[in-house]
């Protein structure tokens, strides 16, 4: 692996200037080599968060009055900037977060695609005109920005998730205070650099890097008009409650415990490949990852035989090595937390059906398949209930589609579900019966396109969904105008 030894100076972006933080020292390191520091500097303080919100507020009237086509230009230029540097930034992402180089480069390109998609909003409808029951009248529904929007993002998609919140916030005329996960500040800084290079006016986008409690400083600030959050269900619900108390809309994308259901009539080769990707790509660190596997008993042994054979060739190691399929978890703390979850599952009667090979150091963990106990005990097991955010796949067996759907529904979460069947009627039944935000028929549980709604049911989501036409629902409020000439 080619190593550069430069440590990036970690800075805050306030009112169009890169400035040092005034808080405690923070740093990020390589996921696979924790002793290697990648970025270092002082965290933002609550006072600096206040400056960020004040700057965003001061910029907000001019930004809202800027034509959408002009706002789109900034996003397009930032997209081009990212695309030109996709390989280099993808390598930075891979090194810091731990996903493979291909996934890192893919994520940078995806961020560019998201920016371009929202730029296209300038050529879409600006609202809706309704018929009026009264003569000589039209009813217009138009959209206005909320004002200053807070964006709080997790470590697992260090640039794509920020892009899919910041791009719609900006295109719809909001100004932004962005707080990324402090484990992955590098790509957050790159996204801000891209928009700065595009000429974005001062104050429109502000970046504050630091510990989680900065999120409370954003939430509590009187200028805040909306908050979009992706992360754990616990933190998301606290933010939703705080927002409700203040009348500030909050959009929260939270946990998942997504099932893949493989029925007896499925194309097994396809299902094996898609479950492998869904469960183990990005080391299982996606809210859309497959972590429950529900197999029809008729094909269960055949399926597991094929899946474990594929896993025998699955290489866990240095994420920058092209031969590697799976890097480490983001850090040793994440690995230890997943390890403890695994131990709880084992104490509660689960057994290890498969454990792959992995380096011992840093946050490395091998791919693991857990067999849960039969009957209701299986569905009380930590392997069924808890989101480990790790390459651990918990398996149960059922008899037929009806039992499979009942098992799939038996979860606090409702983000994504992958169903493998060749029977169209069964697929339609799943669409009607299952409380999930995203249903994949014959494809893996992870993945999202920018032009369609993304988000979950039950404990997985709160507030309007993200992406596509859904984004406008969150980032704007409407005025209904009864217009008579
Ligand atoms: C994807 O499946 O590619 O945090 C996107 C997450 C989700 C995004 C998933 N909010 O994993």
Automatic annotation (TrEMBL):
Q: Which residues form the Aldehyde dehydrogenase domain?
A: 18-480
Q: What is this protein called?
A: Aldehyde dehydrogenase
Citing just one GO molecular function, the answer is: oxidoreductase activity, acting on the aldehyde or oxo group of donors, NAD or NADP as acceptor
Write out the catalytic residues in the record. 253
Which InterPro entries did the record assign? Ald_DH/histidinol_DH (IPR016161), Ald_DH_C (IPR016163), Ald_DH_CS_CYS (IPR016160), Ald_DH_CS_GLU (IPR029510), Ald_DH_N (IPR016162), Aldehyde_DH_dom (IPR015590), Aldehyde_DH_Superfamily (IPR050740)
Q: Which UniProt keywords apply?
A: Oxidoreductase
Which protein family is it in?
A: Belongs to the aldehyde dehydrogenase family.
